[in-house]
Amino acid sequence: MSQETIPAKALADLLGQLENQHNDKDRIRLIEAAADGHWFTTYDVIELVNVQHYGPSKTQTAILLYPKTTDPESYDYVIECYKFEEDRKEIKEALGL
Fold it and tell me: What band does 96 get if pLDDT is binned at 50, 70 and 90?
């Protein structure tokens, strides 16, 4: 399977869809669907995390997308975008980092 990252247009569409969803469960379903067919850079993941409304959907986004990241060695940048240490710790523990 090729690790081509999500095209810019598809990422923009996904960000728009996420912004229009008010339910966190629907937002996570969109992330799961996107992860099924695409790979993401760390920068892409940060954009997707930042569009999420609340802590649980933000942390779940980082956890779900880690296995589909083309540059996992840079994932600390994703983790560092979280304001609270408890969120950073939860992500690291879930990912075994």
Answer: very high
